Amino acid sequence: AEAEDLLEVNNIEVIYNHVILVLKGVSLKVPKGGITALLGGNGAGKTTTLKAISNLLHSERGEVTKGSIQYRGEGVANLSPSDLVDRGVIQVMEGRHCFEHLTVEENLLTGAYTRKDGRGAVDADLDMVYEYFPRLKERRRSQAGYTSGGEQQMCAIGRALMSRPETILLDEPSMGLAPQLVEQIFGIVKRLNEEQGVTFLLAEQNTNVALRFAHYGYILESGRVVMDGPARDLRENPDVKEFYLGMS
Ligand code: ATP
User: Fold this and answer.
1) Which residues form the ABC transporter domain (predicted)?
2) Running DSSP on this structure, what letter comes out for residue 87?
3) Which ligand 1 atom is nearest residue 220's CA?
4) What distance in angstroms lies between residue 90's CA and the mean position of ligand 1's atoms?
């Protein structure tokens, strides 16, 4: 049986500053329980797509001017990022965004702020996060600002997990990380998907690694989806091989 689509983006257009048309009709679907990758080069529109979904465009003077976005069949246009968290969708932004002056553990706990199920459940989830990211446990009393780039990326994902999300929108997890760490982080994403059932939509320039871990991919070029398919097919596609897999 086909998995239910949690998220549906239908033909959206995004304009920045009233004039700059950046997304020119993007459509995609994110099935429950899958890892879906949004691929493409610098400036293709990956981050803009994720921000459109989680309603983070306003602060950038961006606007969805056409099309619609639904999560579990409900339009998200009037939902704030925290409304979305309540519905199970959380975004991990590019560049990580931990609170530098808080410790790693304090950062993780800020991710649980919307929860109403009490300290016991939150502690259990902290243990769960530490099980996936043993490195964060070792560093739990360190100020986040003094941890490495890889640790900060782990901290940002861990913090998102603390809200018990159904879906994580993950922007460029490989950015600035050494290849070995990229492998490690993608390996954890895969385990979270398989063991905790977390659905992922991830934006990634590193086509190579993304297509090894994702189930399905969409390739964006200049604000349009130019190709999509099962990751296995995209990996074998001659155009993808020539234009994307050689790159990283
Ligand atoms: P990257 O990997 O660099 O983040 P991306 O595929 O995520 O690339 P976007 O960040 O979505 O691409 O950017 C798409 C286009 O929109 C780019 O041409 C970019 O210059 C432009 N853009 C992004 N943010 C703004 C903004 N606030 N105002 C005007 N143009 C913007």
Assistant:
1) 7-247
2) T
3) 6
4) 20
